[in-house]
Amino acid sequence: MIKAKRLQQFVLSSWLISGLMAVVASLLLFSIFGYYSYNQSSHISQKELNEKTQTAARRISGELLIGPRGSPDAVALQLQKEFNLSELHFGSFDDIQSIKRGSDFLYSEVKMPFLETKYAVLASVPKSSIWNHFNIVNLLICCGLIGLIVGSGLFFQTKHFNKHLIKPIESLVEISTGDKIACEHWPLELQEISQKLNSSFQQREQAVYSQMARGVIHDIKTILQSLQVAADLANESPSEARLQNLLKVSKTKLPSLLSIIDTTLDGSREVSVSPQTSNLIETINRSIETSKTLLVAQNISFRTERLPDLFMLAHDSVQLERVFTNLLKNAFEAVDAKNSADKSVRLAFNLNDKDFIGITIEDSGIGLPKNPDSVFRLLKSTKAHGSGLGLLVSRKIVDAHGGHLIAAHSHDLKGAKFEVKIPRKETTL
């Protein structure tokens, strides 16, 4: 899985890339300067050598014209020292051409003037090393020059980037979800994104309201219909049996109606709990009893595993009963929705963790999405009229106890698996 990076990391990466390019550019400029300096120095040395060789040729030629009274060898030796030459030879063209020439020297060959026989002079000086022109001063100059250019560019880029990209992005959510409008100096793309987000949030708010209203009203309508039927029967023939039936229906349905209203309200507010030390098994059993009517009606196989008779734990029994009831109800409905012959729901008690008590509810129903944790988001219900509030509120209740509500795939029953983990020690709230 690729880990996402923050925007600052991308900005830092761009700076590092710019810095690397600056180093490469500095080295390239340093090499160009060094090579140019070497060529210029070689050109000047060659020009000076040619001038010295011309002078030596004229003077040695004069000595040769004088004849016996001249001393061309002595003059050549004197000129070699005077001009600081490595070598100074004179003679016929053939003799000069036969002299071995090294690659570490500059050579200048000049024809002697005023002589009928072909004579020439060959002079040499050591070449300047190319590495002498790559010194630290030139490197610092190059790095400083490139660094100044790149640094100035990055400074102005950062200012421009913050003004026209970072700050608009930071304000984008507030502007898109509120009454503000995008600034005119923003890039056109960000203004278009702001308009699209604003429109999307409005449509989503309408969809949330509509879907929640449909789900809640559907659940309330179902309960009210039962109450209405019982009341009509009692009104038609007010017998004791029908009045008893109305009372029974009212006792059963009115708490469910209040539970739906509480769940709807708890979806948009913090859930408070009042933990007291009591038997957790009784809380679970009450949830099982509440779900029994659905269990019998749909012919579902329900079994409990490793469930002790007594386990005292600090918890809010009313709130946790809502959690277990909702999880069992979801499991029964998921199993029934699969239309399979194997309709199984299992509840298990886990005491292996020294810090938490685990209660696991698994089913053989339709299962969960690839990302099981997404079922705790609003509007992520798999039911036709569901709003996703049940699981969202259940997680809030468990979190308020300092525990965890974990959704996963059931390997044994091939459906959904929910585990409620409650701390063994009393949580400070």
Task: Give descriptors for this structure.
single chain, 429 residues, alpha+beta, Heat Shock Protein 90, five-stranded mixed sheet, three-stranded antiparallel sheet, 10 helices, 57% helix
Structure report:
By secondary structure, the chain is α+β, with helices and mostly antiparallel strands. The chain has three domains: about 5-135, no CATH class; about 190-265, no CATH class; about 275-425, Histidine kinase-like ATPase, C-terminal domain (Heat Shock Protein 90, 2-Layer Sandwich), CATH 3.30.565.10. The chain is about 55% helix and about 15% strand. It has helices spanning about 5-65, 70-80, 95, 135-175, 190-235, 240-265, 280-290, 290-295, 315-335, 390-400; strands at about 85-90, 105-110, 120-125, 275-280, 300-305, 310-315, 345-350, 355-365, 405-410, 415-425. A five-stranded mixed beta sheet has the order 5-7-8-10-9. Helix 1 runs antiparallel to helix 4 (about 135-175).
Note the run of SSEs as H and E: HHEHEEHHHEHHEEHEEHEE
**CATH homologous superfamily (4th level) name of the largest domain:** Histidine kinase-like ATPase, C-terminal domain
Overall shape: rod-shaped
Mean pLDDT: 77
Count of beta strands: 10
What is the CATH topology descriptor of the largest domain? Heat Shock Protein 90
Any idea how many domains? 3
In short:
The chain is an alpha+beta fold and 429 residues long. The chain folds into three domains: 127 residues, no CATH class; 79 residues, no CATH class; 148 residues, Heat Shock Protein 90, CATH 3.30.565.10. The chain is built from ten helices and ten strands.
